[in-house]
Protein: NAD(P)-dependent oxidoreductase
Amino acid sequence: MPNFAIIGSGAMGSAVAKRLIDHGATVLTYLEGRSEQTIARAKAAGMVPVGRQELTQADLILSIVPPAEAIKVAELVADISSGMQAPPPFVDLNAIAPKTMQALAARFEGSGVEVLDGAIIGGPPVAGKSGPTIYISGDSAKPSRLLEDCGLRIRRLDGPLGAASALKMCYAGINKGFVGLGTAMLLAASRSGAAESLKAELSESLPDIDRKLSRSIPDMYPKAYRWVAEMQEIADFLGEDDPAATIFRGMADLFSRMASDVEGSRMLVGQLDEIIGHPGTDN
Amino acid sequence: MPNFAIIGSGAMGSAVAKRLIDHGATVLTYLEGRSEQTIARAKAAGMVPVGRQELTQADLILSIVPPAEAIKVAELVADISSGMQAPPPFVDLNAIAPKTMQALAARFEGSGVEVLDGAIIGGPPVAGKSGPTIYISGDSAKPSRLLEDCGLRIRRLDGPLGAASALKMCYAGINKGFVGLGTAMLLAASRSGAAESLKAELSESLPDIDRKLSRSIPDMYPKAYRWVAEMQEIADFLGEDDPAATIFRGMADLFSRMASDVEGSRMLVGQLDEIIGHPGTDN
Structure:
């Protein structure tokens, strides 16, 4: 059975690892300097902590980290792979802009490492469900086949390195941007006394949107800190010439404010929970 | 039967007039300096063009214009009402921020005109359907009763003058902001070669959102020019302290770019139509 290495054992990384392990694979990881919580989650998923150099014993190395860490992880992998005769391919699965992906790939120049651009669309794998979908571009088909054989849903994109990242940016821009819009306007309604009438009007005239917001906003609270860099990546992806880049710089600031609130007073969380009728949480 | 005056005979103003006329009311309007198209639309709806001073013969004067014109219309009405013993009440139904609404109301100080804050949520009235919903705040109940009696769906808000405007800002921020997000990301997908995979992924994993975008984006083309000022009003409503104000300044620029394209080369319209499978239009 194949041997994978996954750098990053957050909610997504550890759940992807568990899916692979459940299909018989071994999943190595590197945990030096990580928090107790991360170490516990990695072990619970059945990942095997190893030293950094041993990561290269895998058939494939995956990076599943917050976007702001993607380049650092690539540099680590380029470093440990340097000088190897047949280093394992490297798949970046992070929510980064195509340009960031190209800058990341440049770290491997002359190293002999095959670099693939991947993007995960959907939440972490859950037993009994086939998602998320992992898009891969720049692939010779062999590396991603290994993932497919171990229970992951893979779609290959014809485009060049960066095509999967572009898809992820566009998808996240719509999906997470929508949560940002809803968050901003529910908070504004709350402070201007229009919360009740807004909620009533949404549930009546836009029931799909109302349902999606009521579910997605509480799901966002613990992820807001991670979405900050993701929104900045989307702004970079759109580029200075596109007026929509401004939209996502605003989104980054909004999620940054939410992230501070989630870790701090939870005043905004309380306002949002009240409008959407969410029972609230104590953690 | 009551006598109304409606200033503004765009798609919304003329359709509201027609609903009132179909219920037996007379609807006066003021058309000096308007385009041939506007004059034709007003007459087709059965509106009666009068001189500006005669507008005050109505039982109620409504303003239904693009947000950037709302203050100018209020000044006209304050001017023609000045010196009257019992001037008709004035209802602003435009998509303006609560602060703009308060600035607008200030134009009537000392005039004896009762000023109401209204907001229209939903598209123009269509025969056989009960919508849109017209929210009214700051109402003594009598003026809006007249509208209700002539076939409009009215909801009174308890809040002060500005509460209806706040509701409209929040609702439009979600509803039109969503169209802006979709427009921005579909265009980005188009120029980065990810259009096909994005459309496939959306229709599979977010079918509600996909359907709504496919319908709402073409509907937006002819309205984009009007949405520019509306997005600016939302940014003002949110205020400088709110990072989400930046989101709506970006939205205003995006719709401004769309409006230029709609009137010009229609290159962006073509890209959007191609992705969403819209047959396109020649107008």
Notes: Chain A touches chain B through 59 residues (CB under 8 Å). Residues 28 and 54 of chain A are 8 Å apart (CA to CA). Chain A is about 55% helix and 10% strand.
